[in-house]
Predict the structure.
Amino acid sequence: MVDQALTRPPRGGIQATWQRIGNKVKFTVQVKNQSGVSLSYADNKAAVHAVVYEDAKVGVTSRYARAAVFQNLATALASGASATFTLETPDLTVVDWNKLHYVVLVDYRPGSSGAYDMLQAAVALPAVSQNPAD
């Protein structure tokens, strides 16, 4: 349950797709900055992240993180602006591809120190194949 009194509207928009390429996962992530501040790694440690997890019983959880990749925002993304990022995992060789899930998020660190703030997170959707053989 989420305490509704603590919620706020998302400060970023995300549209993301994933595509399996061999034993890797390629993410294409479109981010719209709705934070009210310019985002960049140099200014506020802003980054785009992708997490691949598998439905698998491990210890006390039923989820097993298989890969986590990120890309720092090297170029400033002004408030209201959008940019597209591509992230790719290393080879995932011991996974059940039918049990994988894909999540992306954008975060930054407001101020000069302290905790990171997640602007938005989203489930990545399968990319529509342009090749009928896929």
User: Anything to note?
Assistant: The chain is about 5% helix and 50% strand. The first strand starts at residue 12 and ends at 21. The longest helix spans residues 41-44.
